[in-house]
Amino acid sequence: EKMREDVKARAHVNAEERVLETLVGKTASPATRDSFRKKLRDGELDDKEIEIEVADTGNGGMPGFEIPGMPGANIGVLNINDMLSKAMGGKKT
Q1: Per-residue pLDDT tens for 62-93?
Q2: Quick one: which of 74, 80, 81, 82 has its CA closest to 56?
Q3: How far is Cα 36 from Cα 43, in angstroms, rounded to an integer?
Q4: CA 27 to chain centre
Q5: Which parts of the chain fold into alpha helices (H)?
Q6: Looking at residue 21, what DSSP letter applies?
Q7: What is the pLDDT of residue 31?
Q8: Predicted local confidence at residue 64, as pLDDT
Q9: Where are the beta strands (DSSP E) in the chain?
Q10: Long-range contacts of 69-72 (CB under 8 A, 24+ apart)
Q11: Where do the structural domains in the chain lie, given as residue ranges?
Q12: pLDDT tens figures, 10-63
């Protein structure tokens, strides 16, 4: 269970970073990135849509992603908005 929570926490951080990179770009200043991180965590961006490309893992057409450090472990379909909402105070749109 502890390992699952650790993986979940890392996934949350990685998902947030991926969303921020999509919103502000790779070359944004730390101040801009922090400003958008606050907006994201405060729910100010909940009504916005973004597109994020993900690599095909070749798992038979089921969307998902590999868990780093756990060969063969795979997480299926996730609603990132739900995951981020729950992790940031349970706020849901």
Answers
A1: 555 555 665 555 555 555 666 666 666 654 44
A2: 74
A3: 11
A4: 19
A5: 2-24, 30-42, 80-87
A6: H
A7: 96
A8: 57
A9: 65-66, 74-75
A10: 70/7
A11: 2-87
A12: 999 999 999 999 999 999 999 999 999 999 999 999 988 888 877 765 555 555
Place of tokens 């919103």: 23
Torsion of CA 67, 41, 84, 43, to 10 degrees: -160
CA 35 to chain centre: 17
Q: Are 65 and 57 in contact (CB under 8 A)?
A: yes
24: left (phi over 0), alpha (psi -120 to 50) or beta: alpha
Q: pTM for this one?
A: 0.55
User: Over the Cα atoms of the chain, what is R_g?
Assistant: 14
